[in-house]
DNA sequence: TGCGTGATTGTTTTT
DNA sequence: CAATCACGCA
């Protein structure tokens, strides 16, 4: 029996597809990584393709690492010659070799978003742009979108004619790009952009890679942006020995999981693949191997509310599974505590371990309260993505030393550390040096070396030269072949007295900070040990620039993981808690109030689909009627996505913390149908001592229970009353249900604002349901 | 130059 | 509730 026999029919067809473009529409959990890895194996084993000629592109290092590992496992030999890497690393690798043709130095550094912001700050200062009105972040996002669309500063300027704001953006973009170049630095978007630029200017480079990459695979194709699309297209446009274009391009994606529009992802890349390549073969993978029937159905029902999707229907042979749970809490603290307690109980019961649980949320800020509760309970956990390790202050400081030593042209790094620890070199001095540097067309560091010639420095000049000689000494040391990066770091800490300085500052979390430095040391050591030959400083800096939090997930083994829905894509967990299912949180306030809410809500819905389909066995959704967000209390109604899940798939619970639901402080109804009109979630910014505004447009005003204009302090009291509608059936009556047909009412419970009715259906079995959802009709 | 204070202000998601 | 910023003082 061969390894290919374990594949289903469609998977097999995808794996065995011969030449020409192939689009694999792979639903969530349909085994797409399996198909990709088996296809690579198949190409090598059965079609004699040289591993050297295969390129597999992913978006995250984690995905790349997984694919590499799985390929290694099924391919006997030669797998190390396959290029399996992220778009960004691939581009870095190419640029390291060729970027001099674009006028950059091959030792370029990569700027992260903090660096970008610092640089943009300088640009704004230089161009005298008031960053009160135009924030650095928004300018950067304009530039980022331009780069995603492969628009150069010059083109941007051309398009900006007659538009004052755009002309301003154009000048910012130009200056920003100029400074990046003089710092010999590239930002994330440049990595892709410059690679396409390289391929368009250097026939030699393009031909080289076209010849090399005769088979190209792209994972998560729905997330590609225009620049990435162009890159793939250029690479796959090569001519084979017979002189024809084969386009051996295999892309895998799921339009329903396209969640990176904000980052420039162009969903038409996947929707129009067949137009771009009319000869393309399309294969759909619709069998899900991950989730229970109920979870999958919930996901299908939610995503069905989107229009303009590629037609597909996911199904599974897995068991029915437990119902999906929805719990409505009063407060975010209760939500967190309840979830954390539940995880603790489950683990204590012995069936499951911490790593089986994931807590997913829309925004990073929501992790905080969970962290609090997890710490109290002593549960091991890992929060992905909130702050990247390499973005920590201490780490950035020390890395800036490394960068300064490795690439003196990176002025940002030099400026960052010139006064860390304090050397008495202040802003005024830096400005003078900067002026001199610009005036003489030299780098900032070069200007520092000439400090003696800079007018007006006086005492600072001596301080600068001692800094320069420190760097120079370190530079000469790293040139020695036996001197490692970890030695260098050690030396930097020693020579600068960095740790002593840290201790001297008497910060409250001093120990954490020192521990972080230790962690950096061990990461460097690990990097050096993993390398086949002694890595260079720039190798390490490159690794650091491209690694994300998520990539290290496998390092911590048995922990509960917390992350955003975006980060969760591609992962799976037996238990998934999808929390903060509230209007204004998820879907986000931004999407509800966007210029084009329809489109934005669809993206949120895809995100919800991604979240639901992460769950294998147990899915628990929750919302809070009251939530603290950045120092203010929000009152939110349950998310519309809850309502999109059919009732018969859900069990609902309300305020488990209140034994008496009538005393609940809840301001939002559990019953989504109750608020038939969708309106913005209410946010109050109360003046001290007085609540005003409030749950505008919520069910409460709609129901007439209280008026928008009334004070909130009074509202909860008034809301004590019950909303129980009347039901015209009782225990023992026969009723009919729209989906389940005819059944016998066996029990009715008062569940706070609603009745929970238990019905014994002749065909569908016994179901518990909320009276207001079930719309039961009395028959006798 | 550097530090402390109070005020202001912000919010999605990330390679 | 943060993080950032302007301002004033040593």
From TrEMBL:
Keywords: ATP-binding, DNA-binding, Helicase, Hydrolase, Isomerase, Nucleotide-binding
UvrD-like helicase C-terminal domain sequence ranges: 293-570
EC number in record: 5.6.2.4
Any matching Pfam family: UvrD_C
Catalytic activity: Couples ATP hydrolysis with the unwinding of duplex DNA by translocating in the 3'-5' direction; ATP + H2O = ADP + phosphate + H(+)
One Gene Ontology biological process: recombinational repair
Record domain UvrD-like helicase ATP-binding: where: 5-292
Molecular function, one GO term: ATP binding
GO cellular component, one term: cytosol
PROSITE patterns the record matches: UVRD_HELICASE_ATP_BIND, UVRD_HELICASE_CTER
Residues annotated to bind ATP: 26-33
Enzyme's top EC category: isomerase
UniProt family annotation: Belongs to the helicase family. UvrD subfamily.
Protein name, UniProt field: ATP-dependent DNA helicase PcrA
Source species of the chain: Anaerocolumna jejuensis DSM 15929
């Amino acid at each position: 029996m061969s390894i290919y026999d374990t594949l289903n029919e469609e998977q097999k067809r995808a794996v065995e597809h011969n030449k020409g473009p192939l689009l694999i529409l792979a639903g969530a959990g349909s085994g797409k990584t399996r198909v990709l890895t088996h296809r690579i194996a198949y190409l090598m084993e059965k079609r004699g393709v040289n591993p050297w000629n295969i390129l597999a592109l992913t978006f995250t290092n984690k995905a790349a690492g997984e694919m590499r590992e799985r390929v290694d496992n099924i391919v006997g030999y030669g797998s190390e010659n396959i290029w399996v890497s992220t778009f960004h690393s691939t581009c870095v690798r190419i640029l390291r070799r060729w970027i001099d043709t674009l006028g950059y130095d091959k030792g370029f550094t990569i700027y992260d978003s903090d660096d970008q912001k610092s640089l943009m700050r300088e640009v704004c200062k230089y161009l005298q742009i008031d960053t009160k009105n135009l924030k650095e972040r928004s300018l950067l996002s304009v530039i980022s979108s331009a780069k995603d669309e492969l628009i150069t500063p010059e083109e941007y300027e051309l398009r900006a004619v007659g538009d004052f704001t755009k002309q301003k953006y154009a000048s910012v973009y130009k200056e920003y790009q100029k400074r990046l170049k003089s710092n010999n630095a590239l930002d994330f978007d440049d990595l892709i952009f410059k690679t396409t630029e390289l391929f368009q200017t250097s026939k030699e480079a393009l031909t080289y890679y076209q010849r090399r990459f005769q088979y190209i695979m792209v994972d998560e194709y729905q997330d590609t942006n225009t620049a990435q699309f162009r890159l793939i297209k250029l690479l796959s446009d090569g001519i084979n020995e017979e002189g024809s274009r084969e386009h051996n391009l295999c892309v895998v994606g799921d339009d329903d999981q396209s969640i990176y529009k904000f980052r420039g992802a162009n969903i038409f890349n996947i929707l129009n693949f067949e137009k771009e390549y009319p000869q393309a073969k399309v294969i759909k993978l619709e069998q899900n191997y991950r989730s229970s029937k109920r979870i999958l159905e919930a996901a299908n029902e939610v995503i069905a509310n989107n229009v303009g999707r590629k037609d597909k229907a996911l199904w599974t042979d897995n068991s029915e599974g437990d119902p999906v749970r929805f719990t409505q809490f009063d407060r975010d603290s209760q939500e967190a505590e309840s979830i954390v307690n539940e995880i603790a109980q489950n683990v204590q019961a012995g069936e499951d371990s911490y790593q089986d649980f994931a807590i997913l949320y829309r925004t990073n800020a929501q992790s905080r309260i969970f962290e609090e509760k997890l710490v109290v309970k002593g549960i091991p956990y890992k929060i992905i993505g909130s702050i990247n390790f390499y973005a920590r202050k201490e780490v950035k400081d020390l890395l800036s030393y490394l960068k300064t030593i490795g690439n003196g042209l990176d002025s940002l790094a030099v400026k960052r550390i010139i006064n860390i620890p304090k050397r008495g070199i202040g802003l005024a001095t830096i400005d003078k040096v900067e002026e001199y540097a610009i005036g003489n067309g030299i780098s900032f560091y070069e200007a520092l070396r000439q400090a003696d010639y800079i007018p007006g420095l006086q005492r600072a000049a001596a301080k600068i030269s001692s800094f320069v000689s420190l760097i120079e000494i370190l530079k000469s040391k790293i040139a020695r072949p036996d001197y490692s990066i970890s030695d260098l770091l050690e030396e930097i800490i020693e020579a600068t007295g960095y740790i002593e300085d840290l201790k001297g500052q008497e910060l409250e979390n001093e120990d954490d900070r020192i521990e972080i430095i230790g962690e950096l040391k061990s990461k460097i050591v690990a990097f050096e040990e993993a390398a086949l030959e002694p890595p260079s400083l720039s190798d390490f800096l490159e690794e650091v620039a491209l690694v994300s939090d998520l990539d290290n997930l496998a390092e911590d083994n048995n922990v509960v993981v917390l992350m955003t829905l975006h980060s969760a894509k591609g992962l799976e967990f037996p238990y998934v808690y999808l929390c903060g299912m509230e209007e204004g949180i998820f879907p986000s306030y931004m999407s509800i109030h966007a210029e084009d809410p329809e489109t934005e809500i669809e993206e949120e819905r895809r995100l919800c689909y991604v979240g639901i389909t992460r769950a294998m066995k147990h899915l628990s959704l929750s919302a809070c009627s009251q939530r603290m967000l950045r120092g203010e209390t929000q009152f939110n109604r349950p998310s519309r996505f809850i309502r999109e899940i059919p009732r018969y798939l859900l069990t609902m619970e309300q305020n488990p913390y209140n034994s008496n639901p009538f005393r609940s402080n809840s301001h939002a109804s559990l019953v989504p149908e109750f608020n038939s009109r969708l309106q913005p979630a209410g946010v109050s910014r109360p003046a001290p001592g007085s609540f005003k505004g409030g749950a505008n447009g919520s069910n409460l005003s709609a129901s007439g229970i209280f008026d928008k204009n009334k004070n909130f302090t009074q509202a909860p009291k008034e809301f004590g009353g019950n909303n129980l509608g009347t039901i015209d059936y009782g225990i023992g009556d026969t009723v009919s249900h729209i989906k389940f047909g005819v059944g016998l009412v066996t029990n009715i419970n008062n569940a706070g604002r609603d009745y929970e009715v238990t019905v014994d259906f002749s065909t569908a079995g016994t179901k518990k349901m909320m009276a207001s959802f079930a719309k039961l009709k009395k028959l006798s």
